[in-house]
From TrEMBL:
This is Galactokinase. It comes from the Bacteria. Coiled coil: none annotated. Signal peptide: none annotated. GO terms for molecular function: ATP binding; galactokinase activity. Residues 43-88 form the Galactokinase N-terminal domain. One of its GO terms (biological process) is galactose metabolic process. One of its GO terms (cellular component) is cytosol. The keyword Nucleotide-binding applies. It comes from Candidatus Copromonas faecavium. Residues 129-213 form the GHMP kinase N-terminal domain. Pfam families: GalKase_gal_bdg, GHMP_kinases_N. Transmembrane segments: none annotated.
């Protein structure tokens, strides 16, 4: 779309409706300015007058902690933090990207999509997605993009997956006539992380960033995960979702993360299966002594977490559909307790550094005093962030309370947005 026309549409009523749905009443003007900013950035950097706008959400994991890699069930949502971009096809065999937030500017030749030796960073991730599209039989081509992001890095809201899904939406728009579905987006992102980052990730982050709204996913068949959108208005319950950074990232915790799927699969292997999704809890409970003897106590506990967490996801979805919000909050608390005690991903064993459990303990004390709310570890665990759901009237008090311990600016108030990774043009009228 011609830049001037796009600017005019951003000022219109349909744009205002879209921005309100995505960012809330207080985010309309700020985010309209973000879109204008990336348009100006694209024109100044590459000279384009015809362009398109894109957005891709960060994500929150509401329940289903460490279940996706064993083909279990999750409840997740797209949040109002996102990557936004202006982009245009350039008719060449080059992809040129400026990532303002991370101060990056790079060019990729389409005839050279091999990963670097170190297998890391944004360039390798982007090459991996392009190679993934090619391997799956889709078209790729040259384009230019100017990107900015407010998805918090290393905070369990999937800044990398948000970027991946943004690039997928561009490739879909420019070279595949919008025919690629979001499940394929997720597989492309997974391919890039598995083969170009050497990271054994599943599909949860990508799906939650791409689909939009609140979704439940059953990964029993990982090639064709069953995705259901949950039509539920959190705002109507007068509650907010808050995530709290606890002060340490995930960079040096690969061994801890890898141990969880490995130990769960170790239990599954005792029953001749690859993942726990193909084993029943009854089978494990009937053979506990053998499981403990041959796999160990912690693998047994982690397997039991998997089975119970799957049931909790189902119960939470039912509670939302039946408008039993208090039951939903109770299940969130149960999920957090299971992650802490059974899954054991809230701190590194033997370490005195326990930011996650400290933040959870302080939050539990706050909730106990007020008599309302829920909290749990958020995402991979061991370090990073926690999640709390609290009545809006308590949010400011809680943020002030928790930031005294975790540091100024460590708490973020979020909301669920209806659209994931999309080309914005089609929403502007």
């Amino acid at each position: 779309m011609e830049k001037q026309l796009l600017l005019e549409k951003l000022k219109g009523k349909e744009a205002a409706v879209f921005l309100q749905k995505m960012y809330g009443d207080n985010g309309i003007d700020e985010n309209r300015e973000r879109y204008v900013h990336v348009m100006e950035g694209l024109e100044q950097a590459f000279g384009h007058q015809d362009m398109s706008l894109f957005t891709s959400a960060g994500r929150t994991e509401i329940s289903g902690n460490h279940t996706d890699h064993n083909h279990g069930k999750v409840l997740a949502g797209s949040i109002n933090l996102d990557c936004v971009a202006a982009a245009a096809a350039n008719g060449t065999d080059e992809i040129r990207i400026i990532s303002e937030t991370y101060n990056q500017k790079f060019t990729i030749q389409l005839n050279d999509l091999k990963p670097s030796e170190r297998m890391g960073g944004t360039i390798d991730l982007t090459k991996g997605m392009l190679a993934g599209f090619q391997e799956m039989g889709y078209q790729i081509g040259g384009f230019d993009a100017f990107i900015t992001s407010n998805v918090i890095s290393a905070a369990g809201v999937s800044s990398s997956a948000s970027y991946e899904m943004l690039i997928c939406s561009m490739v879909n728009r420019f070279f595949n006539d919008g025919k690629i579905d979001v499940v394929t987006y997720a597989h492309v992102g997974k391919y890039a992380e598995n083969h170009y980052w050497n990271k054994a990730s599943g599909l949860l982050d990508q799906m939650a960033c791409a689909v939009g709204g609140m979704i439940t996913i059953d990964f029993k068949d990982p090639q064709k995960p069953v995705v259901e959108k949950i039509d539920y208005d959190f705002g109507a319950q007068d509650h907010s979702l808050i995530i709290v950074q606890t002060g340490k990232g995930h960079a040096d915790l690969s061994e801890e993360y890898s141990s969880i799927p490995m130990e769960m699969k170790k239990v599954a292997a005792l029953f001749g299966k690859e993942t726990l999704a193909d084993v029943t809890e009854e089978q494990v409970l009937a053979d506990v002594s053998r499981v403990v003897k041959e796999a160990g106590d912690r693998p047994l506990l982690r397997a039991l977490h998997f089975f119970e967490e799957n049931k909790r996801v189902e119960a939470e979805v039912a509670a939302l559909k039946e408008n039993r919000f208090q039951d939903f909050l109770t299940l969130i608390t149960e999920s957090g307790n299971s992650s802490w005690k059974w899954l054991q991903n809230c701190y590194v064993g033997g370490s005195t550094e326990q930011g996650i459990t400290t933040a959870l303990a302080l939050t539990e004390l706050f909730i106990k005093e007020k008599g309302r709310g829920a909290c749990r570890v958020h995402g991979g665990g061991f370090a990073g962030v926690i999640m709390a759901m609290l009545p809006n009237e308590l949010v400011d008090e809680y943020i002030s309370y928790i930031e005294k311990a975790m540091g100024q600016g460590s708490a973020y108030r979020m909301s669920i947005r209806p659209y994931g990774a999309v080309c914005v043009d089609s929403f502007l009228g």
